[in-house]
Amino acid sequence: MNILERIGRWVLTYIAEMGRMLIFVLSSFAWLFRPPLRFVQIVKQLHFIGYKSTFVVVLTAGFTGMVLALQGYYSLRKFGSEGLLGSAVALSMIRELGPVLEQIDALDTMAINPLQYLIAPKLVAGLIGVPLLVAIFDVVGIYGGYLVGVDLLGVNAGSYWNSIESAVEWKDVYGGILKSISFGLIVSWVCCYKGFYTRMSAEGLGTATTEAVVLSSVVILVWDYFLTSVLL
Question: Does residue 203 lie in a domain region?
């Protein structure tokens, strides 16, 4: 019975935590429509979350696309389909790797600040900035694949771009955008929640940071599976 009681307490504790998180994000969005409007704070958070992540995003995207092209080329060459390398790189970046990997870069620069007046601007900045970073990630990754596939491995440039044009559809782009918006909300939501309820100490801030990164990563991966199953 002791084991069952502990499991029951654990389940009730996490259900209550989920309820607090839901109330937290709903009240945060409600603050957006209450004066005074904090446009300056939104711009500051966009600069912090978006602009300061650009270098890491470009670096990560470039090498991700290059690795995809390198691995994809030797796999496709076994079937004589090197001309499809562009579509393989583009679809991988747009559908999955762009929205998912970019969140790691966003987590690296997302500040966990317990000040309440910053919560709503951070949520808005996450919803706006993250999809823009994903778009940059996708474009840079595709060009990284082009550098390796065409310039290094000798794939025909026309075949590379034509395969992308014929394979990538609007639903692929739409799905990537939808994922990036939802992931941006998850990252900013979890980080703001953990920061708001952190203990006011160096140890408390470190614990909140670790919990925010772990919880955001896990929720993103789980949500990505269910969202992908719906979008396919």
Answer: yes
